[in-house]
Amino acid sequence: MTTMVRSIDPLVVGRVVGDVLDMFVPMADFRVVYGTKHIFNGCEIKPSLAIERPLVQISSVPSMDSLFTLIMIDPDAPSPSEPKMKEWLHWIVADIPQGMDASKEYMGPKPPTGIHRYVLVLFRQKGPPTKPWQLPPARNNFSTRSFAAQNGLGLPVAAVYFNSQKEAANKK
Predict the structure, then answer these.
(1) Does the N-terminal or the C-terminal CB of the chain have fewer CB atoms within 10 Å?
(2) Angle CA(6)–CA(72)–CA(74) in degrees, nearest 5?
(3) Residue 131, Cβ neighbours under 10 Å: how many?
(4) 2 with 150: CB under 8 angstroms?
């Protein structure tokens, strides 16, 4: 449990807690892997490595029949200095571990300028949804807090973020 509690510190330093999430106590471990690269708070991932959906594994849960919702957003869209489209929704998956998509397809990082934070937030569902999710009409200006409140998800049980920036064009 000590490692889970300690994992909140980088989220505070990286301003994920505050900009995107309220303070929470991590209650689950989850591992996010792009290719062979394990994601940890503040690491750098090239957009070309994150084109495909990551592998997500959840562990240390009190009940094996728990269901989870995963949200991935960019709070720095379109640029960290003027994030007027924050939070940009990249991915929502509900009913994990069953893995049924509840929303649009996965969209990998495509930062146009500056270094962007990409935040993956995990919520424990209180059970299978009793009504259809209230999904946003667009990817821009999504609010993780509002979505969680509207859909009865409460506070997150885990979160991790990585940084990404536009890659130089390949010259042939």
Answers:
(1) C
(2) 95
(3) 7
(4) no
pTM here is 0.88
Please give the full DSSP string across 14-71, using - where no structure is assigned.
Answer: TTHHHHTB-------EEEEEETTEE--TTEE--GGGGSSPPEEEEE--S-TT--EEEE
Give the contacts of 110 (CB within 8 A, at least 6 positions apart).
47
| Lookup result for tokens 């859909």 | 151
pLDDT in tens, the chain (172 residues): 334 444 678 999 999 999 999 999 998 888 899 999 999 999 999 999 999 999 988 876 566 678 889 999 999 999 999 999 999 999 998 888 756 566 668 999 999 999 999 999 999 988 777 777 777 889 999 999 999 998 889 999 999 999 999 998 765 4
